[in-house]
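Sequence dictates fold. Next comes a concrete instance:
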Amino acid sequence: MIQGKDYIGVGCGAFILNEKNELLLQLRNKAPEKEYWSIPGGRVELFETFEEAVKREVKEETGVEVRVIDLLGICDHIIQNEKSHWVSPSFLCKIVKGEPQIMEPTKHLDMKWFSLDDLPDKITITTQDAIQNYQKYNLKN
């Protein structure tokens, strides 16, 4: 049984902005959405909270420690042609220690900061959802 294929997977993502209001994105090197830019994140492990999972995933993927600020939203990450189904909340996070670097080169081809006004064309469904939720969040706060 494969999570996200044989049953719905549970993931999480970190929406991380720097002091220039640029978003940290990684270029995926595996399915789902291979060769698309994505916010850091991954699967939630058994008995792990969403916040614990997002902190762990960010540390594993980028080497930095983050503080979770707020929940931005929950994405129904359904990709029919890849037969993939995940449910993934995204969290607004702030780096509290370290400088981002690619820690899992087999999973990510590149990592860059992008202006919210100049994002790459190929971004994942979860990233699109997080951006839309961040824009709504920004209007409220």
Observations:
- DSSP finds two helices and seven strands in the chain.
- The beta strands are 9-16, 22-28, 37-38, 41-43, 65-79, 84-97, 108-115.
